[in-house]
Amino acid sequence: MPVITLPDGSQRHYDHAVSPMDVALDIGPGLAKACIAGRVNGELVDACDLIENDAQLSIITAKDEEGLEIIRHSCAHLLGHAIKQLWPHTKMAIGPVIDNGFYYDVDLDRTLTQEDVEALEKRMHELAEKNYDVIKKKVSWHEARETFANRGESYKVSILDENIAHDDKPGLYFHEEYVDMCRGPHVPNMRFCHHFKLMKTAGAYWRGDSNNKMLQRIYGTAWADKKALNAYLQRLEEAAKRDHRKIGKQLDLYHMQEEAPGMVFWHNDGWTIFRELEVFVRSKLKEYQYQEVKGPFMMDRVLWEKTGHWDNYKDAMFTTSSENREYCIKPMNCPGHVQIFNQGLKSYRDLPLRMAEFGSCHRNEPSGSLHGLMRVRGFTQDDAHIFCTEEQIRDEVNGCIRLVYDMYSTFGFEKIVVKLSTRPEKRIGSDEMWDRAEADLAVALEENNIPFEYQLGEGAFYGPKLNLPCMTARSCMAVRYSTAGLLFAFSSERFLCRRRQ
Fold first, then answer.
1. Alpha-carbon distance 213 to 325, whole Å?
2. Three-state DSSP class for 304?
3. In a 3-state reduction of DSSP, which class is residue 279?
4. What residue stretches are annotated with the Aminoacyl-transfer RNA synthetases class-II family profile domain (predicted)?
């Protein structure tokens, strides 16, 4: 019989399996009313999920960050519910949580207008105000597939066929007559989902592949209460006045045009700012003892195949041909720096060797993801690579972190949220190499008393990485900028490094 240990250390004994909602009700009706989900032994579960063994339990409410994410995820299902009522033949694809909100990709035989979006939002409010219970049901893979096949939901069937094991038990969430599939958790009742707004629509390819059908993506935001929603909308309104695209046009800094999507035409004043930033960064690189180099704009595809980039990154690479040879326009500087390192044998006495470049890089980003200067296809990557021994890794990581914090402080960036991204499914190198590399990065952060979060499976294919997104106090939105990162490449054999033993 389960013994439930609560965050304050107190315990409750039960002679039968209990759910987080049961425990919340046992503690008090107020907590039960606020209960959205539970965290059992560190794992988020639905409020209705049964706990059969001894466990540590935290009750998740709207005051918790996880609770707000659950509200947003359930609002995505609410959006699906409303869409299917207004346009029953719509096919639903995916509806995840994103920063400050959610979206749903849908296959609809009409282009959504602003009037359609307003009608959708109105229907969502009508449904949410019914405060209906959300019913969860764990079913077999075959039952889930039959459920969605009978409803004509081909995208859900595709997800089941390609992404879910046949022995798995998918979770189905019933919103009255509407059913969706998700790992969850979700709110137990729609009374938690009253404070939302649909924001915009955009195009998105199914599975992010331009060879697939273009779907319509509907974005929304959701919050725990009306005050938080209104505050967010007010911040958005203020942020619009500071949109870099608007400022760039007003100050004649740059422009972009259809003939070169994702490429920047720098005007005189904008290019002057760009060059001044280069001068500043160069001074810091010199201070931290980096060499500056310049690699070629494109290299033979054979080289990219040897390094593993072609197998893992080819969809994002532009290519061209000349004299029966295929060349790749570089999306990153890494292989070029390795070739510079290889010119002349190096010994351990030459290490660490810090190599930096303002590299002109190009990546074939999906057209729907392009956004001003924040997401482009052609850009200058202020990039560096450090060649060092295993014993030097932690010192070099510490030096990189100091350099990043030094530059961030100049621009008023603060609240750096460090994230350690671990091994992805597609990767090179042995598990032992990954274990060592991930541990080295974690220890370096701990030694500097830098708090960090793990991003499981988000590392580069050749090694783990640290992301250092920062926030600026000068922005009314406290915008998080993904500006700096440290990537660990431990497979010197794959990158064709040579040194004298």
1. 32
2. helix
3. helix
4. 243-496
Q: Per the structure block, which two tokens stand in for 25? A: 């009700």
Rounded CA gap, 173 and 166, in Å?
A: 19
What is the identity of the amino acid at 360?
S
170 preceded by cis ω (within 30°)? no
Give alpha helix (H) positions in 388-481: 393-410, 431-447
Residues 6 or more apart whose Cβ sits within 8 Å of residue 408 = 414, 416, 468, 470, 483, 484
**Both tokens of residue 358?**
């303002």
Closest CA to 57 of 97, 116, 91, 17: 17
Distance of alpha carbon 389 from the chain centroid: 31
**Distance between CA atoms of 477 and 472, rounded to whole angstroms?**
9
Render pLDDT for 110-126 as a digit per residue (tens, 0 to 9): 999 999 999 999 999 99
Residue corresponding to tokens 């969605």: 148
pLDDT digits (tens, 9 = 90+) for 186-215: 999 999 999 999 999 999 999 988 889 999
For residue 500, the model assigns a pLDDT of 45
Q: What count of Cα atoms within 13 Å lies in the side-chain half-sphere of residue 75? A: 29
Q: What are the chain's domains? A: 3-61 (3.10.20.30), 65-242 (3.30.980.10), 389-500 (3.30.930.10)
Contact between 54 and 12 under an 8 Å Cβ cutoff? The reply is no
Q: 12 pairs with which residues across the strands?
A: 4
Closest by CA to 424, choosing from 454, 462, 458, 453, is 458
Residue 249 is predicted with a pLDDT of 96
Helices 154-163, 141-150: inter-axial angle, 10-degree rounding: 160
Give the residues of the chain that fall short of pLDDT 70: 470-483, 488-501
Cβ atoms of 454 and 419 within 8 Å: the answer is yes
Give me the half-sphere count of Cα atoms (radius 13 Å) on the Cβ side of residue 145. Answer: 15
The partner residues of 218 in beta bridges, in order of sequence, read 104, 201
How distant is the alpha carbon of residue 476 from its chain centre?
Answer: 22
